[in-house]
Amino acid sequence: MAEFGELEAQDGVRMPWNIIPVVTKKEQSIDSEIPVSAIYTPLRSSTEHPLLLPYSPLRCRTCRSVLNPYSVVDFSASVWGCPFCFNRNPFPSSYSSIADNNLPPELFPHCTTVEYLCDSYSSPSPPVFLFVVDTCLISEELDFLKSSLFQALDLLPDTSIVGLITFDSLVRVYELGFPHCTKSYFFHGNKDCTKDQLLDQLSFFVKNPKPSSGVIAGARDGLSSEDIARFLLPSSDCQFTLHSVLEELRNNPWPVAADHRPARCTGAALRIAAGLLGACFPGSAARIMAFIGGPSTEGPGAVGIAELKVTVEQTGGFVVLAESFGHSVFRDSLRRVFQSSGENDLGLSSCGIFEINCSKDIKVQGIIGSCASLEKKGPLCSDTGIGQGHTSAWKMCGLDKNTSICLVFEVAKRETPDVVLQSQIISTQMVKQDSGLQLFRDDGSWELKAYRQELTNGFDQEAAAVVMARLISFKMETQPEFNPQRWVDKALINLCSRCGEYQKGIPSSFRVPSQLSIFPQFVFHLRRSQFVQVFNNSPDETAYFRMILNRENVSNSIVMIQPSLVSFSFHSPPEPTLLDVASIAADRILVLDSYFTLVVFHGATIAQWRKAGYHNQPEHQAFVHLLQSPRDHADTIISERFPTPRLVICDQYGSQARFLLAKLNPSSDGNGTFSGESNVFTDDVSLSVFLDHLRRLIAQ
């Protein structure tokens, strides 16, 4: 899979099928289980060929695609052929010196991804942060939250625009531009408030008359800069006022019955925040930073993480779920949001538009990820929509350098084969497309070794597992009767039966190509993951896990599906080990990375030595190093990841060892005896049993 990683490093793209199967309408395509798709990371930086062109892209007059290395250039006629619609386009006068030995950078063969600095480019406006703070918290939690907010505000650039809203059963909008004392406007939490009502109640039109027609949108359309600066102003101008307001914040004073939750009008607060930003800074890099301590219980909207999922994903936002505002998961993650320098900078960007163009016979079904449809319909759109579908353009309101979207395509089935070969034994055809993809057609004879080898050579197991996980999550949310285990099992059986080799009725004869060798293992762990097994998680936790999955790249997503396990011991250097109970040993330390949680697991002997204080004795420096190495490894992962994972340090046979045991393969010898030094009591089958069942079902 190294070659797929190299392609991702250059272009930010991973595809399950790098050689695309094409069939006729009478045939069943191999991509019916794992569709032709791509995981694309728009802001992934290319370290090998960073290229910024200081001019606008040259586009096709017909389909608006961009001049690229796959375009056919006629130097004598000074025209280029579009590889998508095959239209011939003249070069402008700025390309008059183009020649075979004098190519523009966008035609270099290795420049498959370039960036353009358009003529209409202007310096970006400062970011806008509107803080929405829940005060329905106990005093200790509110103190934790205020401490983190003070640290975050100190990290903001002086030019950043900030505002503040707090809420409990009432919503308070603070006028930070009023320096004499704390001044705020109150709104009832059980009433909805439109944008026009909000502007009227905030006295936006006292000095300047309200426009009689048109849309009110910012200082250019109906609002004065002075009125906007009353509520949203540079942090350098309101730092003292903002700190004073936060210091004075107190939790909700109204008593709450023992069997009731506090009156929390989250929906009304978010509606007011969105209305204020939409009126004052339309189309800008604005973020609502909401700090919520529980579910909404009053006013419009039933707001929890599960209910907020659609809003967060379509606006390109992110969520951090923690047990407390004092937990390191929340504190460190909030710090990362405002960290604007260093190698661990999130690289936050805003206001992006993503468009796609496809070759003939390929249509777009949709995107699963952080974006919103722009409703650009046309011949590129498939009749079947998935995720944000029925469009070929999307708005990406917020994204970072790891934000990844999953594009799902539909390959058109043809009425008849393109070529009728005289031989009825070999009936496959390979067509090389100008777009760089290879399309294959097959008449149902999947056993043909040459065809199978070519197809599997382009199969990316990791990308396929991630696409499958996103599809399962989407189907479980949109199809109430969907059975994820049955669907994923059927997909695995069909794929392995078509690409593998076996003798009918002999399960032991089953073999899969090396390109599919670990895909069944990915599927096994996917079936046991939090994306499929939702019984032990709340709806908010399940929504949180899926939101992170839908925005991360392949490398991070595969860790969510199949966690990594690293072993530390006296006898060998740190090394990856099997995700199996057999890896547990008394004299070994294991570090489990499941993306959301990092577990440092001490074997029984190691734990006894640590409790005896051997690491405090100077003659046991090797033991000190053994204890410290796993922590350093975990700290490195924590520093690079967002949201910050939870760190669990535990001992063998301790209560928190469950965080490790729940992710391990419960292997046994078939008689109930486990192969490791810890027993895992579970109803799940082991990986070996799972693979045995797979072989039998395929060989039937």
From TrEMBL:
Residues 573-660 form the Gelsolin-like domain. Coiled coil: none annotated. It is found in: Cytoplasmic vesicle, COPII-coated vesicle membrane; Endoplasmic reticulum membrane. Residues 351-424 form the Sec23/Sec24 beta-sandwich domain. Residues 57-95 form the Zinc finger Sec23/Sec24-type domain. The keyword Cytoplasm applies. It is a peripheral membrane protein. Keywords: Cytoplasm, Cytoplasmic vesicle, Endoplasmic reticulum, ER-Golgi transport, Membrane, Metal-binding, Protein transport, Transport, Zinc. SUPFAM superfamilies: beta-sandwich domain of Sec23/24, C-terminal, gelsolin-like domain of Sec23/24, Helical domain of Sec23/24, vWA-like, Zn-finger domain of Sec23/24. Residues 460-558 form the Sec23/Sec24 helical domain. One of its GO terms (cellular component) is endoplasmic reticulum exit site. Pfam families: Gelsolin, Sec23_BS, Sec23_helical, Sec23_trunk, zf-Sec23_Sec24. One of its GO terms (molecular function) is GTPase activator activity. InterPro entries: ADF-H/Gelsolin-like_dom_sf, Beta-sandwich_Sec23_24, Gelsolin-like_dom, Gelsolin-like_dom_sf, Sec23, Sec23/24_helical_dom, Sec23/24_helical_dom_sf, Sec23/24_trunk_dom. One of its GO terms (biological process) is intracellular protein transport. Residues 124-302 form the Sec23/Sec24 trunk domain. Belongs to the SEC23/SEC24 family. SEC23 subfamily. Component of the coat protein complex II (COPII) which promotes the formation of transport vesicles from the endoplasmic reticulum (ER). The coat has two main functions, the physical deformation of the endoplasmic reticulum membrane into vesicles and the selection of cargo molecules. This is Protein transport protein SEC23.
